[in-house]
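Page 42, continued from yesterday. The earlier attempt failed because a stray header line got pasted into the input along with the sequence. Redoing it now with the clean sequence only.
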Amino acid sequence: MLVNNASAVPRLGIEAYEWWSEALHGVSDQGPGVHFGGAFPGATSFPLVITTAASFNASLWRQIGQVVSDEGRAMYNGGAAGLTYWSPNINVLRDPRWGRAEETPGEDPFVVGQFAVNYVKGLQSITQRKHLKVAACCKHYTAYDLDNWNGIDRFHFNAQVSEQDLEETFNVPFKACVEEGHVASIMCSYNQVNGKPSCADPNLRNIIRGQWHLNGYIVSDCDSVDVLYNDQHYTKTPEDAAALTIKSGLDLDCGYFLALHTGAAVQAGKLSEADVNLALTNLLTVQMRLGLFDGDPSTQTYGQLGPADVCSLAHQRLALEAAQQGIVLLKNLGKSLPLSTSLHRTVAVIGPNSDATLTMIGNYHGVPCAYTSPLQGISKYAKTVHQPGCFDGVFCNDNQFFESAEVAARHSDATILVMGHNQSIETESLDRTSLLLPGRQEELISRVAQSSKGPTILVLMSGGAIDVSFANKNPRISAILWAGFPGEVGGQAIADILFGTINPGGKLPMTWYPNSYLAKVPMTNMAMRANPSTGYPGRTHRFYKGPVVFPFGFGLSYTKFVHSVIEAPTTISIPISNFRALKNSTLQSNTIPITHVNCVKLSLGVHVEVQNTGSVDGSHTVLLFSTSPKGKETPIKQLVGFEKVHMAVGSYKHVKIDVDVCKHLSIVDEHGIRRVSLGKHTLHIGNLKHSISLQAS
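This time it went through. Structure tokens are written below.
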């Protein structure tokens, strides 16, 4: 019962149960717990997480979670799925090469944490009696973001991570997921962290369950226990591996290892029955909260959900809305977008992803309800001339179709190039070695742009960032859209934005670096901060000071928004809770450990007025950044709040963003201790700045 395909115990009325199901962006059959067919031929496939994160819309994230869990429960009621979903992936996107970038909410730990909280709350929909609709799982704890790079794989990688970076970056989303999202499960990762396999780290018990108070179970990534014994050779015997992981806090093994060796570990005296009982208690408690022992599913809280609740029109509309909100406009030269149905009647649609279907749903997918490719979406607005451009898909190593693409562009009113990646370029177990477009894609884009009679628009599908500096600088390329992997109706969303039915409002959830960045940054270097003495430039918008292709938070609109701060404090008094302890501790650069601060209700409200001064309605995200008083530990800036608003032309919106001083205005020292910096903090909203002085009281 300590493995994913848990055995039945007939004498206790316990049926066999498959714990492993996936729901990263819709109910998925990537795990053995879900089966499509019969009454459930498919499920709604939302955009990949990186695209959904670009919406910066927390209520959307929660709504998607609610829909996915409705469909999961409906399939469970029909015998086609389980109730324990090992999603979401909340690892911070530290390196742009990581093949699993598409699965994550981006590079900012605050954003990743807020995605985790909202998606998990939507999935679990915990009732007042603490019943779960489904049980979510935040993965992969911790400092996990290297799959297979330069001969180093995730099964053998030992991530050397400072206490500072663990506290300030890698563990932030997991803490939020447990403490605020009340997730039912955490998954530990394959890699080692500072010499300890993640699934044999006592912090599973000491931090996740002890400090953060996880109410649920801890599961290994699949075969992680086997990996730490057979690949990492961390223990002498398999019984030692079973005993060590369970004592460290592991409850469930995705794999067979604990089924084979736990009994022998108990018999050898290396593990007690009490340790096993604790693991079983954590597992059975979650099953009880899910109602697995409450009889006929149709009589339970969610028993009314059935086939009509899967792939409903409302769910498919939400998938379209999510894609529309997540697509980011990166360039719009001379307001070439939106296209006009009267001026651009014939459109050349070119590129290896121009008629994409499976590519749009990325990895950890299920069977979608239906597809709308970019070609199909654009065809609803204009007559299309289609050319694949690349003979061998996204690899684009052959130019034999280039001339046909140029001819199509020369005789069309506008040209849309749909380029980028698919799962053969970036995915689990496949990290990238370059940020440039694959093969001869750049050549195709440039040749077509030179030939095009009308505006040339470049649409990119990818999980990670791409260095498209050439296209950004080329005046023949009028506009650039990034669609990520936009889900089952992504082609419709792309077309709606191209022709102005929807005004783009997405913002990049990660920095787009130039390809030259990679030569300075080995994937194995986990440090977030720059090191000028070695030329190491640092990572993410919080610490990297070098050139970028597009910055974190960037995204254009067809309209214009202006901000003004209408109310925010200028001084905050920091109440000291333990003067004696503080007196005996060393103040570092005028900072106070938050353990000495009364953090309860120590928050501030920043009131911002937003006006749409442009000519079309649109959605806008207010991003609130903070810069702390200068010190060696201080990030360049950090995101402390965001809010999405939809605004009609000429309208005003009052936006209030609450900032928790101890969480969001603190820094972390080299020992991993979080501290509040006294002195002048600067808040940034667009081009506006507002100063707040933090003073001890």
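Notes: Residues 513 and 547 are 7 Å apart (CA to CA).
Reminder to self: strip header lines before submitting.
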